[in-house]
C-alpha cells in the first residue's frame, strides 16, 4: 500500500509539473496560434539568419515557411495581430528561405522545395549592389512582403511549429 501511494504521488507530481510547463510555454509572449500552426516572433533581439535558425531549433521550431497564399494569409494575420494592433509596422524578420545552395534559386529550408509561391517586394530579389543577398526576410517596408538580404545582417525572426493533437483539440473547443 505504501509503495503504491508513493507511486501515485510521483505520477501526480509529474503530471502537475508537465501541466505547469505546458501552461508556461503557452503563456509565453510572442507566441501565436492560427490554423494548424504555432508561431513565435522575436522582433526585438537581432540575429544573423543562421543564428535565427538556431534559435528556432532551440524552441523545437523552424523558421517559417510561406509556400502558399493560404499560409501567407495566416502569417499576415499573425503579424497584424502582433504589430498592427499596436500601431507598429511589421519589423524585419527572417523567414526560412535562402539561395545558399544555388544562386538565385531560393528554397524553403524546412522542405528543400524551390519557391512555387512568392510574395516578393516589387523589384526583389535583386541582390542589391551585389552584396551577396542570399537570405530572405519580411517587413522591408513595414509589411509582409519579402526581400533578399545578406545573411549576416541582424534582424528578428519568425518561427513555426505544427500544432500537436492536444493543441488542435484545444483550439476546436475554444471555437
Automatic annotation (TrEMBL):
Record carries keyword Signal: yes
InterPro entries with a match to the protein in the record: C-type_lectin-like, C-type_lectin-like/link_sf, C-type_lectin/snaclec_domain, C-type_lectin_CS, CTDL_fold
Keyword Signal listed: yes
Classification via Pfam families: Lectin_C
Signal peptide: 1-22
Ranges where the C-type lectin domain occurs: 32-160
Superkingdom of origin: Eukaryota
Gene3D superfamilies linked to this entry: Mannose-Binding Protein A, subunit A
UniProt keyword list: Disulfide bond, Signal
Descriptive protein name: Lectin subunit alpha
Matching CDD domains: CLECT
Amino acid at each position: 500500500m505504501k509503495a503504491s501511494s508513493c507511486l501515485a504521488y510521483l505520477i501526480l507530481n509529474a503530471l502537475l509539473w508537465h501541466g505547469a510547463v505546458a501552461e508556461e510555454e503557452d503563456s509565453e509572449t510572442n507566441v501565436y496560434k492560427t490554423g494548424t500552426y504555432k508561431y513565435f516572433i522575436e522582433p526585438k533581439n537581432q540575429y544573423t539568419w543562421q543564428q535565427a535558425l538556431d534559435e528556432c531549433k532551440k524552441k523545437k521550431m523552424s523558421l517559417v515557411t510561406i509556400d502558399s497564399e493560404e499560409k501567407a494569409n495566416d502569417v499576415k494575420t499573425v503579424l497584424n495581430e502582433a504589430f498592427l494592433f499596436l500601431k507598429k509596422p511589421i519589423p524585419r524578420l527572417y523567414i526560412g528561405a535562402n539561395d545558399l545552395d544555388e544562386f538565385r534559386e531560393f528554397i524553403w529550408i524546412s522542405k528543400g522545395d524551390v519557391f512555387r509561391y512568392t510574395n516578393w517586394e516589387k523589384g526583389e530579389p535583386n541582390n542589391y549592389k551585389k552584396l551577396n543577398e542570399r537570405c530572405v526576410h519580411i517587413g522591408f517596408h513595414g509589411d509582409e512582403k519579402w526581400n533578399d538580404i545578406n545573411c549576416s545582417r541582424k534582424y528578428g525572426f519568425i518561427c513555426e511549429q505544427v500544432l500537436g493533437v492536444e493543441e488542435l483539440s484545444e483550439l476546436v473547443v475554444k471555437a
